[in-house]
Amino acid sequence: MNTDNLQIQIKTFFGLEPVLAEEIKKLGGRNVEIKNRAVNCEGDLGFLYKINYSARTALKILVPIHEFKAFNQHQFYDRLLKVSWEDFLDVDQTFAIDATVNSETFKHSQFMTLKMKDAIVDYFQDKFKKRPSIETKDPDIKFHLHIDRELVTISLDSSGDPLFKRGYRKEQGQAPINEVLASGMLQIAGWDGKGNFLDPMCGSGTLLIEAAMIAMDLPAQIFRKKFAFQNWKNYDAELFTKIKEVRINRIKEFEGKIVGYDIDARMLNAARMNIEAAEMEEVIEVKKQNFFDSEKELFPLLIVFNPPYDERISINDDDFYKKIGDTFKTGYPNTLAWLISSDLEAVKKVGLRPSRKVKLFNGKLETRFLQYEMYEGTKKVHKIENN
């Protein structure tokens, strides 16, 4: 593996590709290219460590190590036997394989995963008279198998656990938002830590914590204990320590306020536990407050929130979204607000025309991330409504 010029593929959620591409460019990625739910780029080993540690909208970071074409299962198995697996895996290490298959020839990802496992084990048995073990939960080395029609790509997963697992979530509510999605939403909304931030329906606090991490330039994985690349043969512990030190030295003070409201005391307790785990008690304030009875207290202010919607939590949608719009209009003049929802009909009851719409997925739910601009004075409000 040429560690000076690695080909790197970074996975993300649909709709966050441009945000991730921007992050990767800022972190020093070369030849950054947007793909479907992914960004490709080039960089050295240090860059690979840096993006695992710092990229907020990355889900997993893969390094392709082998590519070939196969037109049937026998060919697939035979080609895999020609890979020098000992370059990536020791016989006494454990390994796992995850797979993405899009092919008429190879229809079942589980079956192809088993064939690849057999090829690796048979290779070691034949060459060393010993075999590495499979460990699905916490393997030393994680391979990713991607089959697109007859093109097979084998990659090393440099991350291990998905990168949305930041390490601060101790408690979660009924419908928590994924950390990567939360960070992507904040970046789309333009949150850069200047001014103040409000999540008026904060649940277990994910948006609040991600907003604080952006505001303080805290590395996304500052709480993570381990990455898969630390088990690689070419792992450079000294280099990784240096990279972490440089990123930690960039952490800055945050002058504004980050506030969360919720009406559910249990949710507020969960949020406080997560905020404490993220060591953010001095940065984030949460309080029991009904957003519909609230008024703007912070200037300037950005609102981003994930109201309950669709199959996750039952609410009276029409009335609920109408109340959101009424509260925006009466209580939050001269404010920029964003909300995410999968209920595209009910969200029309907000009564304000969104100035931006971004298609995102929250799990399997197709959603819209909507921007509303509130202006002071009824004339402007009516103008927006009637456009």
UniProtKB/TrEMBL annotation:
SUPFAM superfamilies per the UniProt record, alphabetical: S-adenosyl-L-methionine-dependent methyltransferases
SMART domains: THUMP
Record-level Gene Ontology MF annotations: RNA binding; rRNA (guanine-N2-)-methyltransferase activity; rRNA (guanine-N7-)-methyltransferase activity
Superkingdom: Bacteria
Domain THUMP: 47-158
PROSITE patterns in UniProt: N6_MTASE (PS00092), THUMP (PS51165), UPF0020 (PS01261)
Signal peptide: none
Entries under Pfam families matching the protein: RlmL_1st, THUMP, UPF0020
Keywords, sorted A to Z: Methyltransferase, RNA-binding, Transferase
Name of the protein this chain belongs to: Putative N6-adenine-specific DNA methylase
Annotated organism of origin: Chryseobacterium defluvii
